[in-house]
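Same chain as my last thread, 303 residues:
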Amino acid sequence: MPGPQSDRAPFGVMLSAMVSPFHADGSLDLDGAQRLAAHLVDNLAHDGLVINGTTGESPTKTDEEDVAILRAVVEAVGDRATIIAGVGTNDTAHSVNAARAAAHAGAHALMAVTPYYNRPPQEGLVAHFHAIADATHLPMITYDIPKRTGTAIETETLVRIAEHPRIVANKDAKGDLEASQWAMARTDLAWYSGDDALNLPLLALGAAGMISVVGHVVGDRLVAMANAYEAGDVVGAREINASLLPVYTGMFRAQGVVMTKAALADLGLPSGPVRLPLLNATEDQRAQLRRDLAAGGVAGFTA
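reply #2:
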């Protein structure tokens, strides 16, 4: 895989779950996706990108659109960044097919979220993730975000899931630092923060990096924070984290993709509208976001 990797950080340190740019009429903007991917990799220090995650509006894109945007991003930056395909759904067979399609489209790795809405038992989670991992030769990340899915991956379950040789990492958006510590202690999974407000705490507990939303606008500063902490400059890492607090707050005052697309639009970068049932940021929301990003020192925004 391209980009800097290690056993501890197999996909690098800085990744964002990239939005899917759309044209004004709501159709997929493949040229915009390529330009945005290049901006994140070349200007904001991204080691990799997750394509077709929930921030990429995967629930409202077709399978054909998922393959098209994945191919476009691989073509644009796949020689210098790790491209991870989001393939998780609440239907195991659908996820298996999506994994195979992603591998054929050139993805370097897969990410699968816990099945949502149907609330499977823990034994079902093991079978689900192992079935997806069995479907291709690609390494895979599990994604634990119970506030969205309704089901948490319990530590004992994650230990069993991690027995699969191709499941090599976990994206942690559980918001439970005690559970995170136990899971990191009991598995050899590479750990990636999936909750921007907890990036630094999870790095302190041993996380390898971040799969971020705010990385769309501050990826380079997140890298600086991670590097400072790794080098033993805890005070410096804390100072960077404190400077980013208004960004963490601002980008999640509404749904993350809504605010990310608003911020990108203000920066003149490809974004476009969101698809229903999401709604575009209101003018009041955008004005508050601009104030938040200015307070967080984001280039392009002034108080």
